[in-house]
Amino acid sequence: MAAPKQPSAPKRKRKILAVDDERHILRLIQVNLEREGYDVALAFDGKDALSKVDSEKPDLIVLDVMMPFMDGFEVLKHLRSAPKTKDIPVIMLTAKAQDADVFRGWASGVDMYLTKPFNPMELLTFVKRIFHTRSDDDPGDKTFEL
What we know:
Blueprint: E1 15-19, H1 23-35, E2 39-43, H2 46-56, E3 60-63, H3 72-81, E4 90-94, H4 99-108, E5 112-115, H5 120-133
Parallel strand pairs: 1-2, 1-3, 3-4, 4-5
């Protein structure tokens, strides 16, 4: 007779830090991510973002570029240069849609680059794709449900 299966520990909710100086954009991001079961922390500028990264320990960051005190590219530079934060996935979500801006984002190490105005479903798809490709699940299965 086989031993009874032990219940597995509940999965920890993934935490996402959303950073934008426009509160209505943050609210749109927050509502859609929380609806999908993510824990969402908010930051309103670049300096606030770096502080929240230390305190919240996010699994992923959604980052605007044009913000007061420190822009998103500077935040990304700090994140990528620190051993504790260099591997946190970052989705740039910005109105900066010129080819030079997009290239700068990719060259700076973003995982995804999404321009405003944006479709929340596209953001959710990017988030799920990043978490799926970085999970310890079966490496042969790279499909995921939307």
